[in-house]
Amino acid sequence: FSPCASQLLKLGQKLNEGKTKQIFELADEPGHVLVQSKDQITAGNAARKDQMEGKAAIANRTTSCVFKLLQEAGIKTAFVRQQSEKAFVAARCEMIPIEWVCRRVATGSFLKRNPGVKEGYRFYPLKMEMFFKDDANNDPQWSEEQLLETKLSLAGLTIGRCEVDIMNRSTVAIFEVLERAWATQNCTLVDMKIEFGVNVSTKEIVLADVIDNDSWRLWPAGDRSQQKDKQVYRDLKEVTPEAMQMVKRNFEWVSESVKRLLEPQASGRVVVLMGSISDTAHCEKIRKACGSYGIPCDLRVTSAHKGPDETLRIKAEYEGDGVPTVFVAVAGRSNGLGPVMSGNTVYPVINCPPITPNWGAQDIWSSLRMPSGLGCSTVLSPEAAAQFAAQIFGLSDHLVWSKLRASMLNTWVSLKQADKKLQACSL
Length: 427
Description:
The structure is a single chain. By secondary structure, this protein is α+β, with helices and mostly antiparallel strands. It contains 14 helices and 21 strands. Helix 2 runs parallel beside helix 7 (about 240-260) and helix 5 runs antiparallel to helix 14 (about 400-425). The relative contact order is 0.11. InterPro entries: PurE_classII (IPR033626), PurE_dom (IPR000031), SAICAR_synt/ADE2_N (IPR028923), SAICAR_synthetase (IPR050089), SAICAR_synthetase_CS (IPR018236). It holds the Pfam family SAICAR_synt.
């Protein structure tokens, strides 16, 4: 994008202006808006507000990176693209007037509302809270019951039980993905607030608004005294130029660090060994599923029965270049491939035999009953074998972990929606 890219867009009317951003209609892109950040920083419902030169660009960089990270994981968001230094393009949404707050560590307003809880108390599972967006009343905390009873309707969608559950679940998943990402930079994501909207074109609930350094608390090495988020500004005794420089340096640090969250921490690969070229279709399913997790996958043909020396040579080739590898053995009839690999490599081996209806019940034992000292697992579905490999890599690569986490969320949401649809039909 170029610094003047937003000038190239035909802006329609201004739809909204908040404390830190403006939202414009896009004349040439129906169903889309431009979200333009402002150089203003506020605290305590704008009781304190200051100009901070460069804040718009910093906030826009931060939110664009965070949304890219979530979108690549598979979380549904309103974000479309970063357009310019200070603006991004998003799907037009009708906003749900709730701030969803998710906490891992007790601090801030939670301590005031829950006397007796010490700062640093950790929530397992995460603690969810919601606040109704109402500046006049200082965004009061709401219960689920209050939200349900309000019967909000946005873009033709009524916010009922199903929608509230989806937003609750999504908030937890989004927090976990970002928590995992920040952990790679030795940073604790303490808590976070997000908002959802209803996409006016698709009528889907999506993560909307922004996620930037005003949205969370970030403690490097879990140490509150090193906090990098907007709390630093809230905590200032008095606002001096020196103090504002320090605040700005923190914001810049976050916008630089957030770029690193998009980088994989470890690169792994899956190597599928098939006993015969006739197993290719089965193996292609494994490769395709690996692709969906961003994991490279090689296919090789080798038979441990007919060419054990070649099988072990291929094994040595993949062990010798230092790339973490999971082997998947695909062999029909008697599976010699998986057990031979498993007995001769320290890398994980997954058996994924292509089972046939006639002899399958007998053949499967060659993948299940092993001599001692062999640790290969057996997964029958090719997609599930790829998923298991992804779960192994997800332990050390937050990007793979995030794709698994988002996929789990999306499966849950689609079941919820299918149930709602079916109930509507039955009525």
